C-alpha cells in the first residue's frame, strides 16, 4: 500500500523538491505549510512536475490542537519536518520567534508521533550544530559546539529533543549548503524575504535585481580570504530523505544522525567564478565586513550517510549553478 508521508514545510525550498522525489519513489506526500516563507502558487507547480494532485493543509505547526483535529494521523506512515525559520542573520534579531517556531513545532510533532505511533521521523538539521569546528572535514563524531547563532541553537536543541524523545525511528539529517533548483525550472529557492543565502543573491545580481553582491569578509584564513562551505544540489538533498524513510520503514529501532553534503570545500569567490563561467554572466561584487554568525570554513565527510542510506550525490556544483540560474530566469515568468 502507498505510504502517507507528512511533509511539514513542504511548500518551501527543500520541502518542495522532496515532495517531488517522494512521488517519484511511490510515496504519497501530504504537505503542512502556513506559507510564512513560501508562495501558495508553488503547489500547482509541484503538481505539474508530479502530474498528480498533492494534499495540502494550510496549518501552523505550532498549533497542536489544529494539527491533531485536521490530520488523519492514524493513516500516517512517516513525517519529514522541514518547517522552520532558517535565516542565521534574522535569528539574531528575532531570537524568541525562532525559538518558538523551530523548537515548539518539533516538540509538538514528537508528541503527535508518539501518540499515534507514527513509524518514521526525518528532521532537517544543519551543519550549524558544529559551530566553528576544530577539525575538517566534519564527521558525525566531530564534537558539536555552541552554535554561532540563535538559529543554530534551535537546531541543536531540536536534535537533543529528538534524541531523548523515545520515538521508534528517527533520522536527523545535517545539511550543509543546499543550492540549485529542479531541472524543470518550475520550483527552486523562493524566500518571501530578502534572500540571505549566497546563490539566490548571486542570481539576483546576475539578473539585475541588485547592482552588486557584498561578500562578507575577505580576511579569513582561507586560500582567497573568503569563507569555505560545502554546497550540494537540492535534489540530492531531497533524495537523501527518501533513502532515510525507506531505511526506517521496516525497522523497530533506528536512530541516525547523518551529514548531507557533497564533501567538497568551495570558497565564496570560487563559487562566484564557477557561476560566471558556467552561465556566461558577470557578477559585480565588493567586500564588506565579516557577518555575525558566519564561520570560517566547514565541509563534510558524508561517508556515513553513503553507507547507511545507500545514497550518494549524483549532481555536481556546476549542475546546481546552471539549474539555479535557469530557475532565476524562469521564476518571474511563472504564474
Ligand atoms: N536552505 C538551507 O540552506 C538549509 C540548510 C540547513 C538546514 N536547513 C533547514 O531545512 C529546512 C527547510 O529549509 P528551506 O530552505 O526549505 O526553508 P524554507 O523557508 O524555504 O521552507 C520552510 C517552509 O516551512 C514553512 N513554515 C515555517 N514555519 C512554519 C510553521 N510554523 N508551520 C507551517 N509551516 C511553516 C514555510 O512557509 C516554508 O514553506 C529548515 O528546517 C531549515 O532550517 C536549510
Task: Briefly characterize the structure.
By secondary structure, the protein is of the alpha/beta class. The chain is built from 11 helices and 13 strands. The site of nicotinamide-adenine-dinucleotide has 29 residues, from helix 1, helix 5, strand 5 and strand 7.
Architecture blueprint of SSEs:
Layout (H helix, E strand, L loop, with lengths): L3 E5 L4 H12 L3 E5 L9 H9 L4 E3 L6 H7 L7 E4 L6 H6 L1 H21 L4 E7 L23 H14 L5 E7 L1 E3 L18 H10 L5 E4 L11 E2 L1 E3 H16 L4 E7 L5 E2 H12 L5 E4 L14 H7 L7 H15 L4
Parallel strand pairs: 1-2, 1-4, 2-3, 4-5, 5-6, 6-11, 7-10, 8-13
Antiparallel strand pairs: 9-12
Helix pairs in contact: 1-2, 1-8, 5-6, 7-11, 9-11
Bound molecules: nicotinamide-adenine-dinucleotide (NAD).
Descriptive tags:
binds nicotinamide-adenine-dinucleotide, Rossmann fold, globular, two-stranded parallel ribbon, alpha/beta, seven-stranded parallel beta sheet, 17% strand, 335 residues, 39% helix
Number of alpha- plus pi-helical segments: 11
Please tally the β strands and state the result: 13
**Which structural class fits the helix and strand makeup?**
alpha/beta
Query: Which bin fits the share of residues in helices?
Result: 25-40%
CATH topology type of the domain at 4-179 and 231-261 and 301-307: Rossmann fold
The CATH architecture of the domain at 4-179 and 231-261 and 301-307 would be 3-Layer(aba) Sandwich
Distance between the termini: 35 Å
Query: Tell me, what's the shape?
Result: globular
The mean pLDDT is 96
| Biggest pleated-sheet summary | 7 strands, parallel
The CATH homologous superfamily name of the domain at 4-179 and 231-261 and 301-307 equals NAD(P)-binding Rossmann-like Domain
Amino acid at each position: 500500500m502507498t505510504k502517507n508521508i507528512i511533509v511539514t514545510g513542504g511548500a518551501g525550498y527543500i520541502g518542495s523538491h522532496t515532495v517531488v522525489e517522494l512521488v517519484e519513489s511511490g510515496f504519497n506526500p501530504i504537505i503542512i505549510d502556513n506559507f510564512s516563507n513560501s508562495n501558495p502558487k508553488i503547489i500547482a507547480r509541484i503538481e505539474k512536475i508530479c502530474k498528480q494532485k498533492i494534499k495540502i493543509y494550510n496549518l501552523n505547526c505550532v498549533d497542536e490542537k489544529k494539527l491533531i483535529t485536521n490530520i488523519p494521523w492514524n493513516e500516517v506512515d512517516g513525517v519529514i519536518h522541514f518547517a522552520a525559520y532558517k535565516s542565521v542573520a534574522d535569528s539574531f534579531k528575532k531570537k524568541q520567534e525562532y525559538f518558538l517556531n523551530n523548537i515548539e513545532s518539533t516538540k509538538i510533532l514528537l508528541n503527535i508521533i508518539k501518540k499515534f505511533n507514527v513509524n518514521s521521523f526525518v528532521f532537517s538539521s544543519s551543519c550549524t550544530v558544529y559551530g566553528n569546528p576544530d577539525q575538517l572535514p566534519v564527521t558525525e563524531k566531530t564534537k558539536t559546539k555552541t552554535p554561532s547563532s540563535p538559529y543554530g541553537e534551535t537546531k541543536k536543541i531540536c536534535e537533543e529533543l529528538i534524541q531523548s524523545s523515545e520515538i521508534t525511528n528517527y533520522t536527523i539529517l545535517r545539511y550543509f549548503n543546499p543550492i540549485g533548483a529542479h531541472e524543470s525550472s518550475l520550483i527552486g529557492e523562493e524566500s518571501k524575504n530578502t534572500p540571505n543565502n549566497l546563490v539566490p543573491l548571486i542570481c539576483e545580481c546576475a539578473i539585475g535585481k541588485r547592482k552588486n553582491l557584498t561578500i562578507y569578509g575577505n580576511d579569513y584564513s582561507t586560500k582567497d580570504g573568503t569563507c569555505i562551505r560545502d554546497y550540494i544540489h537540492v535534489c540530492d538533498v531531497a533524495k537523501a530523505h527518501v533513502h532515510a524513510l525507506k531505511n526506517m520503514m521496516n525497522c523497530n529501532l533506528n536512530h541516525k544522525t547523518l551529514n548531507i553534503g557533497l564533501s567538497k570545500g568551495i570558497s565564496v569567490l570560487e563559487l562566484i567564478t564557477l557561476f560566471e563561467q558556467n552561465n556566461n554572466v558577470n557578477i559585480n561584487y565588493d567586500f564588506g565586513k565579516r557577518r555575525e554568525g558566519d564561520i570560517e570554513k566547514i565541509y563534510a565527510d558524508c561517508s556515513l550517510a553513503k553507507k547507511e542510506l545507500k545514497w550518494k550525490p549524483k549532481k555536481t556544483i556546476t549542475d546546481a549553478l546552471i539549474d539555479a540560474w535557469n530557475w532565476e530566469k524562469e521564476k518571474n515568468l511563472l504564474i
